[in-house]
Amino acid sequence: MRLPKFSLPTPPAWAAGVGDPAMGFGRYLIARRVFLIGLGLTSVIAFLSLAVQIQGLIGDRGILPLQPRLDQIAEVRGDLRYLDLPTIFWWNASETFVRVTCYAGAFLGLLLMAGVLVPVVLPLLFVAYLSLVSAGGPFLSFQWDALLLETLFAACFLGPALLWLSPGDERQPWAPSLWLLRILLLKLMLCSGIVKLASGDPAWADLSALEYHFWTQPLPHTFSWFVHQWPPFFGQLGTLFMFAVELVLPFFIFAPRRFRHVAGLGFLLLQSLIVATGNYGFFNLLSVCLAVLLFDDTVWPAWLRKIYYPGPREEIELGTWDVWRRVLATAPIAVLCLLSLFRTVDSIHAVGWAEPVPTVRRWTAPFRINNGYGLFSVMTTTRPELQFEGSVDGLIWEPYEFRYKAGDTRTRPRFVLWGHMPRLDWQLWFAALGSPSQRGWVERFAVRLLEGEPVVLQQLEENPFEETPPRYLRVRRFDYRFTGTAGREATGDWWARTERDVYLGPISLRR
Q1: Which helix H or strand E contains 474, and what residues bound it?
Q2: What SS3 state is found at 499?
């Protein structure tokens, strides 16, 4: 008895990466190359930024040493610790190995920029950065850390399986993986708008949010001060533009190519405006990388197209199983991404669409491949800042100055070297919004200052106790806001401040 022959159904043309360019499945060789260069550059910046501060954050004498935390988790969770906290540092948590991982990640980023060993480099970048994020605790808990991991993971499916990318031999991107990254872009933008609506914050509802944003954001820079001086009308117009980009243009991602180009331009303009008015690490560069994938090769300069298309090229025919294998590989990740988006939408209309999502997210949460996004869902309308002060006798107090956070009222808000993420300064902005009990690491930081720990003091701009650590330390909390033009001209101050309370202390290590 003969068994009936089984054959897979013929896949749609778009699944193989070829098809009607008007529907979005045309050529994306240049877009993919630019995306991978940008992703490699983002990785280099992220790893090098960590390398210069990781010792003071989670080193043996840092604020939150890594090894004791790993020992505690291992004692409680046993073998489950590898799933709860996926990191290579379970095998070696020495300071040297952690820093080597940072520099190795930067080297891998350079390989990605050069197009070398792409199928190998992308998974290694993901593992290295996931290990650092898992080990970094609160200092690596930012949304752009999660976005970098999710982007690296999705990019692993982008192909091609070539050891060296060059214009002469590149194959078309897999359409399913290309759309996987576009779905991630959709989720990033749409969730950012939805959370603002779902919060019910009146500052977003009446379009007054930007009247507060420029001076209450974590790390404003000089141009933030100047933009804050503009009439409120510009802030309202900017808020409307932001809502249009985050709530309308994401749907253009699934529209024909001209609409996608409009969406891409809108996303690029929004990221440019964010960079022009604040310091957000590598978040903006990473968002731009995702937006690049909306532009097919016809929109790039002619000289660049000639490099990638020097003459007629023969499309490579893919077997049926090869096409379906690619679809099946990317489909689960796309479903996870969409489920995360549905959960955010469901936060406005609690209709129970996303009941399975919490379970799925709980399973995938340690690996950061299914994240929610949305900054400033509730606009902060005050700016509390922590000032750390030391004293030798308990009478005369000297302040510690940080590189980027607000301190001395005469210090100009600084531009952070583009892409660098000063994680201590950022976390102190969050800490000022709560109490010491909510930010236990602040007390650990204060203890390190009393000990005069060099690797921690390197995170600061100015240490007033270079010879001998202080005997006492206290943390006062002030309310800051930008000065106006008249106040700036009269006093030379960029900030005006009033004391609110004593956040911590005085404390001492000596009796």
Answers
A1: strand 472-482
A2: strand
